[in-house]
Amino acid sequence: MAEPEVASTDSEAVPTPENSTPLDDASPLEEHVPSIDTPTLAPTSPESRLSRNPSFSGSSSTYQEDWDSNFPPLDRLTVLELLDNFTLPQQLEKLQKGISAQTEKVRKSREAFNTKSRQARERMVDEWRRRVPSAEEQLDRYRKRMRNSVDKLGKRWNDTKAITLREKISFIFGVMNIFVSGYLIGGWPEYMHWWYTIQILYFMPIRFYTYHKRGYHYFLADLCYFVNFLLLLSVWVFPKSKRLFTAVYCLAFGNNAVAIIMWRNSLVFHSFDKVTSLFIHIMPCATLHCIVHLISPEHQASRFPAIYTIKHSPAGSPTAYANVLSMLAWSTIPYAIWQLSYYFFITVRRRDKIAAGRPTSFTWLRQSYSKVWIGKFVLGLPEALQEPAFMFIQYAYAVLTMLPCSLWFYYRWASAGFLGVVFVWSVYNGATYYIDVFGKRFQKELEAMRKEVERWQGEHEGLVGGGGGGDHGEEKKVGLGEGISGKVLDERREGDEDGGSGLDNIPLLNDERPAAAMVTGLEVGDGGARDVARERRQGRGGV
Known about the structure:
- The protein is mainly alpha-helical.
- It is 69% helix and 0% strand.
- The chain has helices spanning 29-32, 63-70, 79-84, 87-131, 135-187, 192-214, 223-237, 242-262, 272-294, 297-303, 305-311, 324-348, 351-355, 361-368, 373-380, 383-402, 405-410, 412-459, 461-465, 480-485, 489-499, 515-520, 527-542.
- Helix 8 (242-262) crosses helix 9 (272-294).
- The termini are far apart.
- Its main location: membrane.
- InterPro entries: GPCAT (IPR021261).
């Protein structure tokens, strides 16, 4: 028996796998039909919530039947279903309002930013206009700066005059020192030790004060000052000590004398510092030369018995200290005392200050001879071995310089020749200083002054030279420094003959004329002079 073709209607309920229980006539229809949450291929019940979109019913019903099955009657529509139709337009309207609000906010922010930028720009322009001085104010500032520069130059000139006065006094005393020392050596050698003592009592306090003020007081612990101290002890305190005299003689004619060459001491009369340095190194040798070779034996025996004993002792006797071995042995003892004291009290205890930049003899020699083979050798060693290596090299240098001291002691002309060589070397160093160092320093000072003058002109070239307009636009700009150096005097000579000297147009510092009048060199009320100047400019323009 064929099954009848049943169409889905509003009054019939089609059984589904989810609803296979037979219906009870007594129970309501809604209790037996569960709500369908997910779409299925089976037809939906009338009580279920239908979609607005048309769906496939699986039947051959007409379009009207599909319309009826998808949309329930109006009496069954709820309020929420009605309001749901207005949800999407409301959201779109809300989104559009948000976009409009953001657009308005961005527009207002952009307008506020433009307004603030414009106000800031206007304030900056106003501030710039307020700060930029006028031509008169710039000219007043220029005069003020020029006055200050002239005042500073005057102070420097006065300081230079004071320094020049001191240098003149130092020059006079330096020349007189050489003259008096030469006179005493040739005529009164028995008073040479007095002259040496007076000078050392004068030079040493000044040297201590100046070096301590400049931070060079560690140089006062060098061997040369120690040798001068030992010489004073040998002359005035222990004149009978043969061992002390032997050590002093070797150290003075050895290390001290050759240090004139090594330390480049120079005879520069106007420099008190250089004269003092040369005195410390050469005057002990000159004094010992006098008391050993130039005074009479009777005076030597009474005043300096140790020297007389050593000089007249036969070879091989216990008092013959003038041989090479004895001199090296007895001079090594005070040298070792000085070297160890210097190492512990200066190098070790003042290591932090030396590392901070306080100069010593070791740091000076290391810098001065850094490019020489011996300096490269020392600097190539580890840092912990550089100072011991320097001490060993210094002692070896002292021994080498003391080897010929026995010859200087016994032979007068050998001693005089050696003193003449080291003194001429100091004179040569002084000549080098005067010609090369001092001349180049003076040239650098002139160059610095020329650059400063050119800088002054460059800063105010537009202010002072702007009044000429286009009449002088094609002229060659020449710096004031070049004008001072005289490079363009010949080029401007013809123009000065035609239009007057350019020096007449330079404004004075106390000139109160307006800027235009000072530029042209004419008074404001002088109309005839302006006419003459205008005719000259037109005549030049025609040429």
